[in-house]
Design brief:
Helix content is 65%, strand content 0%. It has 54 residues and is mostly helical. It has one domain. The radius of gyration is 22 Å and the shape is rod-shaped. The relative contact order is 0.08.
């Protein structure tokens, strides 16, 4: 729903929103994926350390 000037009917500048989104950091899903990978790596390290102690 744009009026031809890359603005929504409400007047939001679509290109400005895209630019701000690119600079806003990780998305929710990206952060969730990163945390899951870090937790998995931590769990594997912890398991390996416990195995070495035995």
């Amino acid at each position: 729903m744009t009026d031809g000037n890359n603005r929504t009917v409400a007047g939001t500048d679509i290109e400005e929103v895209k630019r701000l989104n690119q600079n806003s950091g990780l998305s929710y899903n990206e952060a969730k994926e990163l945390l899951a990978k870090q937790m998995e790596a931590t769990a594997q390290t912890s398991t390996a350390q416990q195995t070495q102690k035995k």
